Every structure is written in C-alpha cells, then in structure tokens.
User: What shape does this take?
Amino acid sequence: MSDHAHAVVIHAAEDVRVEQRPVVPPAAGEVQVGVLLGGICGSDISYYKNGAVGRFKVTAPMILGHEVIGTVQELGHGVSGFEDGQRIAVDPSSPCMTCDRCKEGRFNICLSPSFLGSASTQPHTDGGFSSVLLSRSPNIVPLDDSLSNELAVFAEPLSVCVHAVARAGGVKGARVLVVGAGPIGGMLTAVCAAEGAAELVVADIESGRLETATSLGAHGVRLVSNEDLGKDYDVVFDASGAAPAISDSLERARRGGVLCLVGLPHGGPVPMPVNLSITGEVDIVGSFRFNHSEFRRSIELLGNGLDLRPLISNQYDSHDAGAAFVEASSGQAMKVQLDFSGNTKEN
Assistant: This one.
C-alpha cells in the first residue's frame, strides 16, 4: 500500500482539489478503511457552491464527504471482529456520549458531535472522500456480499429518511404526501413505500423528478403549480426546504396529522399559518440526521431489496472530482458518486 492517499479537498467556494495526504496508522480503537465509493451530498454541494453550509464556513482546507463505503485495511489496538478486506459502511457521526441529549438517547442532536466533512468544528473535521480513511470502530458496519457498492453507499442519506419516518410516528397504513422529489425526497418515497404507506403522493416542480419518484414507489405524483396536491394527509414530509412549500405543506395535513420538516430551509425565515397547527392540533416536528441504529436499519432495507438506482445520475473517478462537483451542483443531477477504487462507471 502507498504511504500516501489521495483526497478531495475544498479550499473555498468552487475550489475543490485532489491532493495527496500521508497515510496514518490506526490508533487504538480505530479502523483503517480503504474507501471504495462515496456519494456527493447536498451539504458537500453547499460547501462547493458557497464555501459554507449555513453559518459553518470553510476557513481552512478540508476533506469533503460523509457518504462512504470501503474495505477494512488495518485494525488499531483493541479492535476485533473485522476481517482484512471486509466490505463495510462508515457511519460519519460520532456523538460525545456524555451530554444531556446523548444521555436521553437522542444521539443525533448531541451537543458536541463530530461529523465527517464538517466545518462546524475548529479545526474542521475532515471527511471521507479520501482513498484511505481512519474511523472509530463503533462506526463501522459490515456489508453483505450481495449488496452492490453503488447501493450500499446510500446507507448514510437513507438513514436520514429512516429517522424522518420514525419522527413522524411511522407511515404504515397512512396517507402520505412527500413535498420535494430530490435525492432525499426520492429516498423518503422509497422508505415510505417499504414501510407500508397506504397512499403515497409525491409533489415537485420538475416532471423528470416525479418520474423518478414513480419508479421509487410513489402511488401518485403532482406537478406543483399545475395540479392540486390534495389535503387531509395523515403525514406530510417537506423535503424541499423551500419557504412557500413549507408554508403550504401545513395546509395539506389533516386535523390531528403530522408535518415533518426534513429539508433545511434556505433564504431566511419561513412564514407559516401556525393557526392550523393550533386549531387542528397538527404536530410540526423537525428531523435531523439519524442514530446509529437507523444507519444499520438503512443497510438492512438496502439488503432486503430497496432499489435506489434510479437516483444515480453518474459516477466519476475520484481524480475527476472537480467535474463531478460541477455536475452535482448543476441542479440537473440527483446523486453523483465518486469512485476511489479505479473501477469507474459512467451513465
């Protein structure tokens, strides 16, 4: 193995470079991972386009990425239960385990978390877009041989959707509306279908994304501005983050229903007709990231046949990360993947 790895590093907005980084042996409790494949996330795109995600600005070079799978290369002292070359997925989230939220079991809203590829900390936390990655051993989850790399790498973003369904109280037998058919909305659609939603409607402003939603299990689709989205849904998920959509979504839930906010809003404060929540007792819940058990559940769903391949727009060799980020941030792509193994496919 080379004593250097290549990594995808952001320096500033629209300044992503592939750089060499020294390979460091795993410390006690760590696993050295040879990364195979990574998925470019919305936060990665925000770092690329804006040099920041919300108030978290890139102030020093940082390795991007938190959706990664790979193989076990070396075990640190005290780590057992893994085999050399074993395929694994990496949970990018490391809660502190000591704060009040962690003690409550709400690890996803830990007060002092560490998360791969995040500028929320100083120094920044490097991400997983590196041909060699060090990870805490509890974050490593084995993958079944039958699960392809291109699907296994969806484990992390799919976990966001598994958590959202749990926050909404489940969807089995429910009438469900998903607003926004981007990557998260598409995965939400797939999870709701797998979890037994009785009626599953997806709305978006782009017809092409609605076609993808149909292939992911939507029972019906609505083109926003052209078609009525309907009302009296048991559960409404907003995966768009668009202020008008969030405001409108509250009107789509039935009295006593649930509005679950999954997409991070952009463009400032969001006006909402909160009187509907009060008089109709519509629960408005936020959903953020996921817990490790939900990460494992997402891998289980993928292993049971949840097919997210309709969301894959393209796959690039990791050395062509610049071109990959141009496509991923174009507004036309769904999910762009980075291949660190050298076995690149192009769609």
